[in-house]
Write a structure and sequence with these properties.
The complex is a heterodimer of chains A (about 200) and B (about 240).
Chain A lengths: L24 H9 L3 H23 L2 H18 L10 H22 L7 H6 L3 H11 L4 H8 L2 H13 L3 H8 L3 H19 L1 H4 L1
Helix pairs in contact in A: 1-2, 2-3, 2-4, 3-4, 6-8, 7-10, 8-9, 8-10, 9-10
Chain B lengths: L2 H4 L2 H5 L5 H12 L2 H17 L9 H12 L17 H17 L16 H19 L5 E6 L4 E8 L4 E8 L7 E9 L2 E7 L6 E7 L6 E8 L12 E4 L2
Antiparallel strand pairs in B: 1-2, 2-3, 3-6, 4-5, 4-7, 7-8
Chain lengths: ~200, ~240
Amino acid sequence: MAERGTGDRPEYLTPVPDPETVPDAGSLLAAVARGEEKAFGRLYDLVAPRVYGLARRVLRDPAQAEEVAQEVLVEVWRTAARWDAQRGSATAWIFTIAHRRAVDRVRAEQAAGDRTARVGAASVDTPYDEVADEVAARLERQQVRHCLEVLTEVQRQAVTLAFCQGHSYPQVSELLRVPLPTVKSRMRDGLIRLRDCLTPEVAA
Amino acid sequence: MTDDVHSLIGAYVLDALDDIDRAAFDRHLRDCEVCRQEADELFEVTARLADGAWSVPPPRLRDNVLAEITGTRQLPPVVPPRSQPRSRRGLRLVAAAAAVVVATGAVTAVYQIQDQRVRETQSRLEAARASEARVRSILGAPDVQTRSEQLKSGGRVTVASSRLQNAGVILLAADSAPGTGRVYQMWTIQAGAPASAGALGEGQAAAVQVVEGLPGMSNVGITIEKAPSSATPTAPLDALVNLL
């Protein structure tokens, strides 16, 4: 419905480039909060690929990503009434839940020894370039990609290693071989710079 | 609170904090409206990062989710009580923050709580969900105090303790698991008498353990024992945390 010339394509296949062009995620979530299952179906179609994609990016394993995505989406249904539009967008609320769930799963696995709990050994084997390339590839055609380029190298690495790989900030410090306080400030500065880039009216 | 805590805001928004730091930061946000606004803004940024992570889920996911929600009761909205001295918006924000914490099942290494020996994933997850709320209530208590010591074997142990909750949480984060056939074991010590607070499994280097009644104890000790666990702690202690 948003795009002309794609008449016979089912609505749920419409690409969703950014929240601005899909202003109804919020009204859908509000309807979900009132228990409307039909609205939930539409909200699912709108956000599920990103929820699943986010879980998959962090967890890598498709089966685990599917489990986490299911947990997250059911949680969205369950707690929809707790979303406060004054505090943030519906999509931010949903992806915040999704990211945290995915990261919690990574940490639980690390703690359980399914993966190595030692930061030094295994994680360092994944060269940063590989991560950067993958992130860059996936962010193609996204405004975010452009904005990531505005960051300094360390800012970008600190943000993507935490966000895309679920690394804790001490792990990021280890991986980048920069001191903890530096990692903390690069993460914050990087996000602030991204924010200013994504919302230019604020940047001025 | 302090600038020092606030400097963690980027790591907080990126979910790059451990449980203790995350809980500390949640408390910091509770007291700071401006900081909450900054966090909310940054969450909008990380949500945009999710735009790049687009992956079509298997079609069965939709069926499974829709089937599950038909049997899932929704939480009611938070209705702010009018008689409270705090502003309604303030209360709503706190409630919303709490809801986010609830919704995201905050706790990391919690999956190991209670029953370290449970290997089967499903049981582990169920145990985790049961303990999660307890851990959250302790870490989120207004009077929580944390103390940390290095492990002689490398890594650290952090103990968070709340008198209001009359309970504490031991967060063990060793650099590596002890050798084959050896495990980390946690102890509480009261009047010189040690009691086991649980042992980790072989090959495990991290745990989060709830200890009821912890504020009455004098110390928390960590030892390395023969698997699966020991009845009494074997000297020397790997770490000793003084609670008094």
